[in-house]
Amino acid sequence: MTLNVGVIGTGAIGQDHIKRLAHKLTGAAVVAVNDINRDSAQATAATIGGDVAVHGSGQALIDDPKVDAVVVTSWGPSHEEFVLASIAAGKPVFCEKPLATTAAAALRIVEAEIASGRHLVQVGFMRRYDRGYRMLKETLKAGTIGEALMVHCAHRNPSVPDFYKGDMAITDSFVHEIDVLRWLIDDDYVSTQVIIPRRTRRSRPDLDDPHIILLETRSGIRIDVEVFVNCAYGYDIQCEVVGEDGIARLPEPMSIQLRKEERLGNAILNDWKLRFIEAYDVELQEWIDTTKRGEVHGPSAWDGYFTAVTSDACVEAKRSGKLVPISVRDRPSFYAR
Amino acid sequence: MTLNVGVIGTGAIGQDHIKRLAHKLTGAAVVAVNDINRDSAQATAATIGGDVAVHGSGQALIDDPKVDAVVVTSWGPSHEEFVLASIAAGKPVFCEKPLATTAAAALRIVEAEIASGRHLVQVGFMRRYDRGYRMLKETLKAGTIGEALMVHCAHRNPSVPDFYKGDMAITDSFVHEIDVLRWLIDDDYVSTQVIIPRRTRRSRPDLDDPHIILLETRSGIRIDVEVFVNCAYGYDIQCEVVGEDGIARLPEPMSIQLRKEERLGNAILNDWKLRFIEAYDVELQEWIDTTKRGEVHGPSAWDGYFTAVTSDACVEAKRSGKLVPISVRDRPSFYAR
Amino acid sequence: MTLNVGVIGTGAIGQDHIKRLAHKLTGAAVVAVNDINRDSAQATAATIGGDVAVHGSGQALIDDPKVDAVVVTSWGPSHEEFVLASIAAGKPVFCEKPLATTAAAALRIVEAEIASGRHLVQVGFMRRYDRGYRMLKETLKAGTIGEALMVHCAHRNPSVPDFYKGDMAITDSFVHEIDVLRWLIDDDYVSTQVIIPRRTRRSRPDLDDPHIILLETRSGIRIDVEVFVNCAYGYDIQCEVVGEDGIARLPEPMSIQLRKEERLGNAILNDWKLRFIEAYDVELQEWIDTTKRGEVHGPSAWDGYFTAVTSDACVEAKRSGKLVPISVRDRPSFYAR
Amino acid sequence: MTLNVGVIGTGAIGQDHIKRLAHKLTGAAVVAVNDINRDSAQATAATIGGDVAVHGSGQALIDDPKVDAVVVTSWGPSHEEFVLASIAAGKPVFCEKPLATTAAAALRIVEAEIASGRHLVQVGFMRRYDRGYRMLKETLKAGTIGEALMVHCAHRNPSVPDFYKGDMAITDSFVHEIDVLRWLIDDDYVSTQVIIPRRTRRSRPDLDDPHIILLETRSGIRIDVEVFVNCAYGYDIQCEVVGEDGIARLPEPMSIQLRKEERLGNAILNDWKLRFIEAYDVELQEWIDTTKRGEVHGPSAWDGYFTAVTSDACVEAKRSGKLVPISVRDRPSFYAR
User: Which residues belong to any copy of the Gfo/Idh/MocA-like oxidoreductase C-terminal domain (chains A, B, C, D) (predicted)?
Assistant: First the structure.
């Protein structure tokens, strides 16, 4: 059985996902596309091969009876509409992050999914599918280092484009840690605090950089994450879990060890896309496979909502300089762990 | 277009390849199987799903008009027969290593393929598809370390089963280095010498262990490979290329760094199957893709022949304790680099 | 010229220093000892060889005209008295940490030294003499990573004895980071905050463990230090400085890389004494050499005072859970950088 | 008691040793110097301070009753004469490597020392005093990796000066491995073979580079050493011992780990002097200490002789391309292990 997928949004990430679904992964076909820019949709459809419908609206695509499942890769503000419409149509939907641009909107999706009685929504947090993070989670689950007490992380980009400013270090970069760390340690956050160190000379007036973001979990685990988006030296994701019996660290990406020019070492990636390129493949393959079985194993609407609330709290903590509680609804039994 | 594959030999490696072709990779289907043990073939066919023919002989499978391409995973002594039959039938054939059990037999395959006028044969040396070796080859090709001068390698198994004896350290283990190093440095061997160090107490009287095998290439590169199949501590494949401008080393398999019990370090694999499990996937996926295009990019019949000649020379060098030349036919233009 | 040293306090650390001064280092002799336990002093004197006076009081030792310089290794509450007496006698004095048990007492020493008009006091913070920290400081001074923005540290002991409780994680362990980090980044602290993560099951009710201690410096550098004194796995000191252009990390102690029992790695020390054993030698040798030239290059009375104020602020921050400012006197010109 | 040392040869290494003896180490004084260039001797004497005799000949220095022990750092061809004269005078002598320029001359020294009935001669192979090699030897002695079976080594220099040519890769560079590996594995060599790989473009016509030198020991351990003196990238000494139960590797020199400019790694030394600078200190300090006790614990005249014989055999093996036996006298009981 092939999962026939309709993709809303044929920008960069949309095209990447279409290539995966159509050519690289197994068990799915892209049968319909839509984009606010119809030319983009047409052009993309032409690259897929086969009989691909180009719809005039996301709703029309969702309503297309040939479409078994929907992938939403349109721009963020449209996510809520298309995810809700997919739920209304009873169709599984994979929505790129963010699930919605506000916590309130994410909560509306949560409520709609619960009301539908079926698990339909998955959010595109790909780090959970990274081999390194998975190895780390397995190490924790195996009890190798005992109970987790602290997590030390870093999220570093060599530089960011001009449009990256304001709170984007939180809403665009740190949001990945919000999701993946919660999954990694299987715990929820209760408060946050944001520290702003001395600014790197490489940043601009409209962008604080770096940040240190602290999170406390329900069980008392303390997380500190350095977010440094003009670190100059490379794209570097670090994560170290300190447990009662030992410490486990996310592996460095595989690379050739070189002895050259009086240095012994390995290359650091520069491009974030390369760092998680495989995670995207695994993510969508597992989405195809679980969707066919009528299941959602990936980041859920609840996770999308929790992340949105946490992100909002971090932004507030940054502005106030104070400890800010992270208050979410009680976890619905629908999303029981 | 789906490549319809027939698989001869449904033992362990056959079943692994069938699972890959049928369920994991894209663009292929397993439509026919055969095994000397018909029950095994039947049982395997049942696991595939769909309409799978169970043939009474390898020849019958090869002759099946539904079969586009053949995978030979039967026991070694039968390889020659099935590869030659596939060539005769004009069908692409992927043959697990060894291509044949003697250099003379491998040469008959080479001659048959040349006579057929088409590139049909690929040999299952999977290391060329390992991500680490590919990174290493890219490093060499990029000129990062200049011209290669020496290669230092190790091939270590924690232990070997009782049936592993005699010259198997060469014919079964080192044979992988014979193929992959030739590919890595894009050069041919001209002589070999085998050194037998002090035997580990963990070996048996019928098995010298470890060995150090030396190879010289046409351009003068010197290769030394420690083959140590009762090394006790793990399955460990090392490869270091010393160039004029620096040294490049095969990456360690990705693993979690642990600080625990007064040690800082990483796990070493114990099972060779895990070390190259991805390489098998890549190998067969690329074989599917290139076969559909009528091409052979992987290890060719010529490579299989060259490996057989080298392996024979190493066995002779081990017995004589002397330097033994590696003499092959002139490379046919059919197999031009 | 030999520096004739009198040692007050012949306990464990006193005996270690006496061995160094008498047998291992150059340019000094131990000519007098004193201890509250006269038997200990006598026994220690006998191990030194030569003519060693055993004095009935620290004051008597300080007054001994044969004594050129004083080493204070008695218990902490007596440090102020003997350091002040040494200053009064115009004799250089090396005082093991802490300089005094309160910031007020440390300030009295500062004032006495200033009043004496001569630099006489050095405090025994040995980490500044550790090869790794020195390499790290040289890296920073060379501008290799640009301006420092953040420092991430860990101070981990495998376990602590029963008498270690209350605030000792700050006053006894973290105090080393207080001194060495200030020296490392050549900056002063302005505030601190202490976070108490989930407690390890290995700790006791009378000891919070681990802690995360945050410091802010005058220039805005943010420091976070995990202090985890029941980490179980070993004695492990980590320090990573994040600069505008790169990141520099304290080296691991030198050790043999082993491949054994399915692990690739290195030993982690268990005993803190081994970690800094060479630093003690370097510390005292440099003290001998600079003292002979009438100079003090090591941690000064001012540093001892600054550390005491910082330590007090951290204890307060731990109790209050709040950000606590670190307020010191203006730096006297006597201690100009 | 101070060991009063006379130093014959005030060139570079002589001056280094004089600085160590006079200023850095404990328990020795330099009381006499001699050099074929009297001006050099005079100038050096002036740097030492105190009453230093400048002798007109090495023999005169040896005969000086103030001289307790002799250090020979003159040029190689003069070593035999001064060592024999020291033995004749019954004075301990530390001779920089080589002990003598021929195996026959080294044997004359061995015989003279035996005839004298006293252990007087130590040869300046400093690697035995390197912390890393000592850690490696302790690991072997502790049985951590079981019995040694193979040793893989590399001796790499970034480049060599113009006067370095002919067999110097063996006689000047590899000679260090000859001594230190024999000590490391506590075994003797029985044969050698030398392989000459493709020459680096960085070498000159009068210098083969690199070499691979193979040694076999009495117990069957096989050693391979890559000697590559124009490796370009740095001064790099590698040593890995493969045992029955695991593998132990010489530590890399301590250095700061950097993340910078898309690379993660550590500096490699460029200057061989820095690599073993501490080993020289330890070597001479231990020589002072053991000499005062009338003992020789360092490389003996027998070791110097064994090294000379091995070096000669390697040169012959290089020229012949054949396996060459290493034949030494039976080990005299005087030099029993």
Answer: 137-325
Name subunits touching C (3+ CB pairs < 8 A). A, B, D
Question: Alpha helix (H) ranges present in chain C?
Answer: 12-19, 38-48, 58-63, 79-88, 103-116, 131-141, 168, 175-185, 272-275, 277-292, 301-320
Give the model's confidence band at B49: pLDDT under 50 very low, under 70 low, under 90 confident, else very high.
confident
Percent composition of chain D: helix, strand, coil (DSSP 3-state, to 5): 40, 25, 35
Across the interface, whether the CB atoms of D266 and A270 are under 8 A apart is answered: no
Q: Is the CB of residue C261 less than 8 Å away from at least one CB of chain B?
A: yes
Q: If we measure between CA atoms, which residue out of D202, D268, D200 comes closest to residue D236?
A: D268
D237-260: average pLDDT? 98
Distance in angstroms (rounded) separating the CA atoms of residues D180 and D172:
14
* C234 Cβ under 8 Å from any chain B Cβ: yes
Going along chain A from its start, the domains and CATH numbers come out as 3-125+279-300 (3.40.50.720), 128-275+307-335 (3.30.360.10)
- The span from the CA of C305 to the CA of C316, in Å, is 17
DSSP designation for C294 = T
B-chain CB neighbours of A249 within 8 Å are: 256-258
For tokens 């220095």, the residue is: D61
Closest Cα to residue C259, out of B156, B273, D237? B156
Q: How confident is the model at residue C45 (pLDDT cuts 50, 70, 90)?
A: very high
**pLDDT at A49 > cutoff 90:** no
Report the alpha-carbon angle C269-C197-A187, nearest 5.
110
Residue whose C-alpha is closest to residue A36's, from A73, A68, A65: A73
Phi, psi of C287 (to 5 degrees): -65, -45
pLDDT at residue B50 is higher than 90: no
Mutate: best of C198, C204, C262, partner A, most A CBs <10 A = C198
Return the amino acid letter for D261: E
Q: What residue in D sits closest to C257 (Cα-Cα)? A: D249
Contact assignment for C242 to A228 by CB distance below 8 Å: yes
The answer to whether B225 and B195 have CB atoms below 8 angstroms apart is no
* ipTM given for this complex: 0.95
Residue-averaged pLDDT of chain A: 97
Q: Is the pLDDT of residue B284 over 90?
A: yes
The two tokens of residue C76 are 């902490």
Cβ-Cβ contacts under 8 Å for B293 (sequence gap 6 or more): none
Over residues C160-188, the pLDDT tens digits come to 999 999 999 999 999 999 999 999 999 99
Q: What is the DSSP letter of D236?
A: E
Give the confidence band of D20 by pLDDT, cuts at 50, 70, 90: very high
For chain B, report the end-to-end CA distance as a whole number of angstroms.
29
The per-residue pLDDT for range A110-125, each reduced to its tens digit, is: 999 999 999 999 999 9
pLDDT band (50, 70, 90) for residue B73: very high
B60 sits in which H/E element: helix B58-63
Whole-number Cα distances in Å, B329 to B111, B303, C134: 11, 12, 62
The amino acid at residue C74 is S
- What b/e sequence results for B31-55 when a residue is b if at least 16 CB atoms lie within 10 Å of its CB, and e otherwise? bbbbbeeeebbeebbeebeeebbbb
Of A146, A149, A197, the CB nearest to C221: A197
* End-to-end Cα, chain C, rounded Å: 29
Percent of chain C at pLDDT above 90?
A: 98
**Mean local confidence (pLDDT), D136-150:** 98
Phi-psi region of B246 (alpha: psi -120 to 50; beta: other; left: phi over 0): left
Nearest by CB to D246, which of C23, C144, C259? Answer: C259
Residue C328 to residue C190: CA distance in whole angstroms: 9
Kind of pairing, strands C148-156 and C222-228? Answer: parallel
